[in-house]
Every structure is written in structure tokens, then in C-alpha cells.
Give the backbone structure.
Amino acid sequence: MTNENGGWLRKLPFVGKKLADRFGKSGNVAVIRLYGVIGQAGLMKKGLNLQDLEESLEQAFEVKKLKAVALSINSPGGSPVQSALIAGRIRELAAKNEVPVYAFCEDAAASGGYWLACAGDEIYAQSASIVGSIGVISAGFGFTELIEKIGVERRVYTSGDSKSQLDPFKPEKKDDIKHLKELQNDIHEQFKGYVRARRDGKLQKEEKDLFNGNFWTGAAAADLGLVDGLGELKAVCRDKFGDKVSFKDVSKPKGWLQRKLGMESRLDAVGRGLMNQVEERWWWGRLGL
């Protein structure tokens, strides 16, 4: 090529411009979108989980002329197990292929969403993104008084004294609550350990203030060292790799009707069910979103 725009190659009929653009690129950034609740999002719909993401993750690190993998994250959290599995797989592939990973927080990277963000070598956010919530939560309902009022008798038979612990139709027991808190503390320590390892030397505040379940805007998170800076995915990557870098979205494609008509299929919409929508709404609602 004789000049920056592709020279004689660009002048070829039909395919010249495409070829010149292709050869003029400085490399590719694979983009994978991690959107939604992590784990089981409801009664009939799966959220983000490693099984569904495995193929997309592998494809991301197989893109030719790969400069980096960019994680676009918009998640209020969810399953700590799936958070750890997904983040672990990303780090495994990054080490194997010796490719940097950059995480970009959109509306939220909170709780398990922040766990995913920590899989990045660097984390970026928008000024108004919700970031953090490094803690563990368990929520439910108790129906003991209701069941008495409507005249229903609860019958449960178990083999094992603890098999029916935390039954919502029975009064809470101190031993059950103690056991649940121990589980939560164990998971919380795992979460904190991962953040410590991935943000080593970057955190700018005492752990008791960062790991208490609180969450902040992206601007505040940058001051706290929870993210490396503020910026949008393409702008940051172009700053790192040049204006000619290409972006390859390898996220799992939408269904046929979603791609053709821009909408969910009727069966999928019905299948989600009211309970699924309520539960997913709760995850976002706790962040004020």
C-alpha cells in the first residue's frame, strides 16, 4: 500500500475498500458482554453461567491478530459459584494465550458483577456506574403466621436433624441462622481474597470500609482503587492500540426472532414467568437501578 488509506489496493473495483480497511487494521479486540444476573435468574431462565459462556469465552481468545479481550459488564451480582467459575476461566484463558483482559463496567458491576470485573487486568467504569458491593446476601420470606391464619398444617419428614433448616413455613431457629452466617462469612472471605489478589497494591482505603457490602459510583470507585480509571470500552482500547483497531463481538447471539424482529419469541417471554421478573427486578432494585 502506498499511503495510509490503502493506496492502489483501495482503488480495486468491488473489494478494494474492504481489503484496504482489513489490511490497514492494527489488530483486534474481542468483546464479550456479561449482562444480567449471575447464575439462576429465576424459575425458568438461566442467568450468566460458565456452561453457557464457555464457547464465547474460548472464541474470544481465538480471534486472529488479537490485542486484548474486553469484558463489557452490566450485572448486579448473583451466584458466587458461577462468578468464581467464570472469572477463573477468563484468567485461565488469558494466561494460556498471554493476552491482556480489560473490564468495563456499564450500569453496574456490583457484588458478583464486580467479581467478574476483577478478572480484568485493568478495570474501567463510567462516572455514574454502580461499583462494589463486596459482600454476601441471603434473602427470603417467613410464612408462619400466614399459614396459621388460612388453616394449613405444614408436614415435613426428614432423615437428618438439619435437613429442613430455614424452612420458611416454620419459626427461625438460632442454630440455623448461625449456620447460615458461617456460610456467608466463608463465601465473603473467598470474595475478599479474590479482590485482594487481583487488586493488589491498588486499593486506596481500609478493607473494613471497602469490604462491608457498600457500593459507589464509578468516579468514587476510581478514587478508592476499585477501578483503574474512567472510560468507555472503544475509546480506551483505541487509546491503547490505535485508531485502526477492530472490535469483534463474540457474545452469544440472540435467538432468531430477536435478531430478525428485535423482540423475544412469545414462548420465551411466557416462559420467563412473573416470578423470574420479580426476582431479577429485586437484584437490580437493591442498587437503586
Observations:
- The chain has two domains: 7-133+214-285, 136-198.
